[in-house]
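Narrative summary of target 7.
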Amino acid sequence: MTQPQLAKIWLCISLFLLYFALNSWVVSLGGQEIFDAKLVLPTRVPAAFIGIPICSVTMMAWAIVGTTYARRSHKGWHRRIPVAFFEEIETDSCEGKIYQATTFFLVLLVALGALVHFWDVVNDAAVLTTDMPVRSVGLWDWGAFSSWNDPARICTGVDPKDGHCEGGCTVLPGLEPGLFALLTAGTVALLLVNMFAIFLPRTKTSVLH
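Modeled conformation, tokenized:
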């Protein structure tokens, strides 16, 4: 692929990432999704729970495309960030560098902030088993993972009358959060590789050329 093609793919991923992360963030705060977003669950805790893997995978793709672009670019960090929206821009200029840095860090910080917030919401949420009698268990409790068929539910709230889950979704205690944690760790690793490819000085013998 050419650099302009990679830049367009990077822009498309960036727009989707911002769209999904911001909408899920708003819903997880108890608000309504922006522009009636169809990909976001309408309930607070499920929106945050599902937001973790989707944001992680999307950020991985964003970092991989960005790293590929950076490694094929010339010297100068501002030239190693894909140019968004403009066919041509003087990235060597002061305003060009500000634009490039703003574009990159806007996407990065919004997506990372959303991911941190999602984990905070999920870790604080109540998790109830679906067997009788209903029990409150920990999200990371492998002992509560009794079957693949709806063993527990992560809840937005718990009905004070009967103790049942309100606004919840299925969760596999221990297994699912463990997989999500691995995805998050992989995301952070790829983002660091991307930042190193962009901002670390490279010599003529660098393998990043």
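Residues 126-171 form one domain.
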